[in-house]
Amino acid sequence: MIRFIQCLFVFLVVCPPIAANDPNVLLILVDDLKPSFGAYGADWVHSPNLDRLAARGLRFDAAYCNQAVCAPSRNNLMTSSRSTSLGIYSLGKNFRKAVPNAVTMPQHFKQHGYHSAGIGKVFHIGHGNTDDPASWSVPFHPDKVVDYVLPESTGGALTREEAYFSNQKLGQNRSLPRGAAWEKADVDDGAYSDGRIAAEGIKRLQQYKESGQPFFLALGFTKPHLPFCAPKKYWDLYEPSKLPVSSVNDYPQGAPPYAGKHKLGELNQYKPVPQDPPLSEEMTRTLIHGYYAALSYMDSQLGRVLDELDRLELAEETIIVLWGDHGYHLGDHGVWTKHTNYEQANRIPILMVAPGITTPGSHSHSLVETVDIFPTVTELAGLPMIDGPQAIDGKSLVPILKDPQATVRNHASHCFPRAGRLGRAVRTERYRLVEWKPWKGDADKIEYELYDYDRDPLETKNWASERPEIVQKLAAILAEHPDARRED
Hints:
alpha/beta, Alkaline Phosphatase, subunit A, 8-stranded mixed sheet, 18% strand, globular, disordered N terminus
């Protein structure tokens, strides 16, 4: 009896009781997903499950990441702290090296009695980063990335980890083949990672239904990240000649030369992509085709998870958030992948379903950021707001979920480092200002980019020299943010 009481005491301390009506949280993270699918007006994309999720809740039309690269963006999501607050801008540094006692979103829920689990690509693991055991109630289930199933696709390929560290030694624009840039094998969905991630997610949902324990489940899909590999049936959904191709093939006129990047970026590490541009029209269309085939493959796996959530009758008691970690260049400005401060790299999809709060099929033009998700789900779940040691930059979006015309901020903020400078940006409804400031803080060398999305939605020209009054106004907004922390 004494032993029973002792065990019960330990259980209550480790897993404090929570109210029976506390909602579950299903957080769906998608790698390299830009807001280019049916729910966002891209009617050429086969995305029935993304679209039906959007139809269940609210779609954010003006959502932005805080940095257009994988690991820092996921740090932003999980800590509600921007890269400029954490001082982490690269793939190779774990966020706990900057803030050792930071409280992450899943950790916060775990501390308040939820069972917290992660599957797939949630935190960025690799490139010197490891998983975050403090965030989970059970050991994290990694994505076990399966990029290729055809032997001919892998010849001479390096693993993602090997390619990263080799690039650090040789220079990031050197060609380091990782294998084929695309693959369309006639296999079932379970042959690649996302099919397996969905299967594990379904298993976890079934376990939660049986146990009745409230859960925070983070499910991270790996596609449409490169390489663009998906079962052949998803490639067959598209006719490449009918897919849209960018009409703007160079960086904005008047932009600082360092503001862009090598136009092929990580793309040229895959075969048969050439080391330098231009790409042929055939290859351009094949790559765009591959991106959307991979997107549709991921969409199908999302559908399997949603089907099971419905079958288990968990949907009415589960908050669902779908988030893309950053946008993606598909040839606009002649650029591919991410790693810039331009619109296509920083605008992201966010879909939220909060039963009893969100109006099905609603959408909002209000400006929001990745860091806003943590405080939003915390409030929706009725938990106390986070009291962690990291800077909390996010704002709860619950007012917008209740009224899509509401706003919680007048601008979004993001950044990207380049060539010894940090480009800090503010995006308002009409403009984006990017301030390029040397890390050493030499004010005489600050340069600006200004883009006007009413007059020039494709960012063909830097208007900063012609609109000094707008630059001054937006620079004042930027000055409201604390000075950026520098990565050690």
